[in-house]
Amino acid sequence: MLSAPARSWLPSVLFVGAILAGSVVGLTAPTVAGVLSSATDALVLLLVAALFAGVRPDGLAALRRAPRAVGLVLVVNLFLVPLVALAVTAWLPGEALRLGVLLYCLAPCTDWFLGFTRLAGGDTVAGAALVPVQLTVQILLFPLWLAVLTGAGATSGGGGVGLGAGSEIGGGGVLPALALWFLLPAAAGVAFRLALRALPPRWGARALGVVDRAVPVLIAAVILAVFASHVRTILGEPSAFVAVLAAVAVFFAVCFVLAEAVAALMRSPRPERVLLGVATSARNAPLMLALTTIALPDEPVVQAAIVLGMLIEFPHLVVITQLLRRRTRREARLTPPPSPAQAAVARQSTQGGGVGTW
């Protein structure tokens, strides 16, 4: 049985494998690449449905129990993190690369961050409350961010990695596509989860477990199709994608330092500080990959930039989780034992619902 930190490395390995396999197929088997390209839409639909089937419904009830922690994470994720993202992406070559990294950085995670929060001893009750709030906000903001970052029907040059002239960025192009290709499978995923309530709890839990385990496989399948279809375009500027990896690494480092500074300024208790550190270090790459594939289907550079962000994110989450766990244990040794009432509150704050790591 793998430990949780070991399991958390598996998505990165899976995604790297999908990139390599897709690149090989795209370069050596154009017929197979064409088949994979035609399957991309179906894979994205399945991914969106699986993501929404996995959303836990207990978050809104938890919101009343941890309003301060939820508010603090939202302020950092929605107001401070975008400033960091704009700063670290300003030097990237090409508008498409900048757009992809920005879309990746602007969407806080709504699923697996809870697993890392629990591992590090953070407040998972507040984390569960964040899931529906952050998910709703980022879906509503996606068309707005897209329009603000690119302009309606924007084009760009610069190193051959700009948005194409045929891209419909404005609301007239994005909103109908999102309604057709995103809202319908999202509704199907929610309906699937609701239908499971009619089953015995044991069967429903097994079905949700299957869906959770299918998500990384579906993401890898989308990555495989994207790289198989567009590998020649993506590999046209290899140095540009090295710059993407560097920008994402800097982004996560700055965000973690920022979260630590905010927690110190607000004198956050230990579980809240851990939650803030993890929640600002995890991004919702699967949802952004799905939305971007729907809204900008002919922009493989934008999609590839989001995929590359995921390769940095998981190792970063593993590292900071270990750092936070060690600090939590060290502080616990130096802190007097809590009263029974304080111990009960602490147990409640770290046993909230949510998904685990993959």
Automatic annotation (TrEMBL):
Keywords: Cell membrane, Membrane, Transmembrane, Transmembrane helix, Transport. It is found in: Cell membrane. GO terms for molecular function: antimonite transmembrane transporter activity; antiporter activity; arsenite transmembrane transporter activity. Residues 330-358 are annotated as: Disordered. Its main location: membrane. GO terms for cellular component: plasma membrane. The keyword Transport applies. It is a multi-pass membrane protein. The chain crosses the membrane at residues 36-57, 69-91, 97-116, 128-154, 174-196, 208-228, 240-262, 274-296, 302-324. Belongs to the arsenical resistance-3 (ACR3) (TC 2.A.59) family. PANTHER family: ARSENICAL-RESISTANCE PROTEIN 3, ARSENITE EFFLUX TRANSPORTER. This is Symporter. It comes from Mycetocola reblochoni.
